What we know:
Layout: E1 2-5, E2 8-11, H1 12-37, H2 43-70, H3 83-104, H4 112-189, H5 193-212, E3 218-220, H6 221-239, E4 243-249, E5 257-259, H7 263-272, E6 282-291, E7 294-301, H8 319-333, E8 338-343, E9 349-356
Parallel strand pairs: 4-6
Antiparallel strand pairs: 1-2, 3-5, 6-7, 7-9, 8-9
Helix pairs in contact: 1-2, 2-3, 2-4, 3-4, 4-5, 4-8, 5-6, 7-8
Amino acid sequence: MKLRLGTTDIGWRRYIALWTVVVVVFAVQRYQQDALSGHTWDATDYLRWSMIQWYTWAALAPAVFELAARYPVIGVTRLRELFRPIAASIAVTLLSLFIGALVSAPFEPSSFAEQFRQFLGQHFATGLLTYWSLFAIQQALQFREEKNRREMEASRMAAELAQSRLQSLKSQLQPHFLFNTLHAIATLLKEDTLSAEDMLLRLSDLLRAFLEDYDGQEVSLRRELVLLDLYLGIQAMRFKDRLAIRIYVAPDTLDCAVPSLILQPIVENAIHHGISERVGSDIIEIESRREGDLLCIEVRNRNSTLENGEGRRTHKGHGVGLSNTQLRLQELYGEAGKVRLDMLWPEGVACRIHLPFRRIEDMDDSPEIDTV
């Protein structure tokens, strides 16, 4: 069983043990005090007097905690607001003296009235000090609990804000991809109606996969590659023999956690700034590997370039997808999540993503991914 002290629970045994320590300490102190004057009583008398005094306060402590919670002194700005706490302290102290005298009277030769006068003279100041000590303990515990509650609330609000920002970033990617794909289908309608219809069917499958996708911010790399495969099928229909896709996936990375829709906008950038803008053919390579505690994902094309030929973390010419990727990585992983663009020799650009290597349980029935 547990005793409720304000908002704090304490076991009965521990509670009685704490007050027993107080009983023994004050019994020994009073005995030593009398020993200095050369007149002492039996040791059991000192123990009985101390038990009556302090076990009475043990019984009244829950009431003191309740009064302290009802009439706190924290935040008091006017003197008259102290009237209730002070009146409560005097009332509870007198009650403790009354109970002490009532319990002590059968063990002493004097009457109850005499016992009460003795308790009033000897223990009133100590009783007031005890009340305000218990009051201070309750206020300190309440302050600590309020501080913890505010910290938890602030942490929850920060997490909700970060989640909201992540969801906002994620929602930007799907319309961005959709508009680009619909534009490609509209262009293809003039050249190859059957291929355009096939692309529409693939787009329908991809949108259905988006709607059925896990609602969180992370999925397994395996599932991300399944979604990417639907997108690549659309692009393969669009560019036909001009576009080649190569995927190199380390088997131990398939179950790693990655931000959902992390690859599609990067691959879209690689296609858009490569084969979409430049003549000739292109090769899109996607690779995943483990590097210590990090998961490294690279998306490379062989038919584009950076303006100044130097590696950067972001590049103004690579649109919404790359900027969203960097923001999402920062929100999810802080400094551990990075994205960088680098030139390849003799031509091409590599987008390198680093994030913490962490496995995720993915309960879907996604098809198997062929690894090279």
